[in-house]
Amino acid sequence: MSIELGHFAFILAFAVAAVSAVAGFWAWRDNARVTLLVRQGAVMQFVLVTASFAALIEAFVTSDFSLALAYEHSHSLQPLLFKVTSVWGNHEGSMVLWVMILTLMGAAVALLGRNLPGELLTLVLAMQSLLTAAFAGFTLFTSNPFLRLSPAPIEGQELNPILQDIGLAIHPPLLYTGYVGFSICFSFAIAALTSGRIDAAWARWVRPWALLSWCFLTLGIAMGSYWAYYELGWGGWWFWDPVENASFMPWLAGTALLHSALVMEKRNALKIWTIFLSLITFSLSLLGTFMVRSGVLTSVHSFASDPTRGLVILALLAFFIGGGFVLFAFRASSLRAGGLFAPISREGALILNNLFLTTALSGVFVGTLYPLVLEALTGKTISVGAPFFSLTFGALMVPLLIVVPFGPFLAWKRGDLVAVTQRLAGAAGAAIFVTVLIFALAGASVSLAPFGLLLGFWAAFGAIAELVDRAGFGRMPIGHSLRRLVGLPRSAFSTALAHFGLGISVIGIVTATAWQLELITTMQPGTTQTIGAYTLRFDGVQNASIDNYTAEIGRFTVTTPGSVDRQMIPERRIYVASGTPTTEADIETYGFSQLYVQLGEQSADGSRVVRAWFKPYVTLIWFGAILMALAGFVSLTDRRLRVGVPRRAPARPEPVPAE
Amino acid sequence: MKAALAALILFWLALPAFAVNPDEMLKDPALEARARTISEGLRCLVCQNESIDDSDADLAHEIRVLVRQRLAAGDTDDQVRQFLVDRYGEFVLLKPVLAPHTLVLWLAAPTLLIAGAIVIFVAARRRKPQPAPALTPDERAALEDLRKPATGAEPDLKSRGF
User: Fold this and answer.
1) Structural domain harbouring A61
2) Whole-prediction pTM value?
3) Residue A232: its chain B contacts at CB < 8 A?
């Protein structure tokens, strides 16, 4: 019964969204009743889609296999958590989650945006409703998750064993929130183009949304990367797989958007460019979510897809992306260019940031889609894989990383490059010193590793140098400096933290790649092997039967100077329902480094294949990403963002403190 | 990235072995290191965008053994790659060759970088030289006020709109 209620609620949400979209675009000009309608419509869509999502969850949790989706993707023996995550571990259910987050964003604008100009609010919510209508319609008509089976099967099939992981509980919701959050920026851009009005207040509204989405996307990508790292069994953390690229492209565009929205908010410049980035970021999010499902891109991540869905998806993508850019082409010239600035200035640095990010983005974009286009046009098949991306993307990140520390030091409008270079000399010296020290200790090999490490330390130390400089350490008594440091605006901290996190990630990538140790061998129980400073003793294998799988559990003891002995238990599992085998590597963390052990198959003589890797400072990759996301959240709490929201008709213009 | 890894199951899990096996590896560490460098850039043809080192498909295993056989027979790295391209086609290379049909792929990003740099440069030059507009009489008077030696009375800037 609740399934039908959920189904009905979803249909109703689709209808409400359609009505809101039509009404909103029909009569957006100065019409308080329509504004009220789209606002209430946005909240209602969220309530209805949430209700239908709850109905799905209930069916999965109670193992109601009369629901076809639950039958196909769940099993009564699965632990409760995986029964819940099974809801979105498939195409249909994940569509409902996607639409739910879309309506959540719309409802948030409707509730928080009371002080937005009425026309802008109407247009934004109308656009948001149009998106909801389109994708809720797509879900209902091509991928309906509410279909019943009769007679109901007694037992379900099973969630893909590799997805039976805490990662599925965290990764898709984070990633979707990131993807879909950018829909708000897209809707704001469409609204600005439709009404022809755009000002710094617009940017002040868009930037928090871009920031919020960017934070979630950063966490989602980092989480996905870590999941792949521990689940796939050989410790790779980024594969330049088309679907990874599909999530990485909106991240690059979103990063550029954050920086250009900053220029627009503070200096009223780069308007057209900011609009363009808002459009492109969500377009890439759509591409990321849906290319995979259309069957155009084959990927290790893709869902099984059928041709009808593919065509509808491509039509929807063409409508929203194409429509957005046609509108842009016709209306962009009506937006006036804003503030002036010299090439050497904070604005100039941010433009440079945008140049490198968008170029890197285009490199990833072309690399991902070129093989498809080439095959369609000439029939030639080529592969574009990790070596291509590492080279082209890496080459573009070098100048970006060199420039990053300069940006926050330069003044708006006109900066002094010589003075900034002097103030950064300390950070540069420290970065060189640390890099040389590391290579003296670790033993240098001829490679690009020292250069990569230098760039990482340069970005990290440059970020610290900015805080040190702004607090005036060394120029005044320590106590005074500390007070100044505490008094710095949160935006200063968030900038420094984000750039510091970037440097940390780069350091982790370089060290984990350049100094990784590998051990591939066969071991008899009771024997030992060494990898780096770690001695691995193989204690044997136990068999066990747990929940919905049986497992061979390998037991290892790791001995290393300076740490107590640790047990490692990599597993090989067979899932009961589907008979699918998986390998579960075990990972021990030492400081920031990790030891990664994977149990292989049994040889004829009773020995085991064992693969082990030592990955120095590998966790820095994800710590850096978490710092970047944290920086975004810090920036969101900045007072200026909270009070900067435009208020309707202030009685008197308040004095604005100079920047 | 979604239900990330969903189809991984299809490719990986149906197969028991995992990536490079101890019995495949060459005794000579230098030769084995060369084999690893080469195979990092080779695609497992039946998988999705994975190198043969990361795959446990039978074909990946075959190519890994093949690479090592060629190396042991005394081929250079390039000869090994060429041998595999002749046998499996360009599809086997994860890093495409630079040739007429891949020009766009290799040049797209650099071209955009240069074009973007030129656009920014031109825009910066165009908007630079604008002499500041002459001062209005009001502003001139305000400036005179400021220049005057302090007489005790603060110049009233607020009323002039500053």
Assistant:
1) 1-164
2) 0.87
3) 5, 8, 12
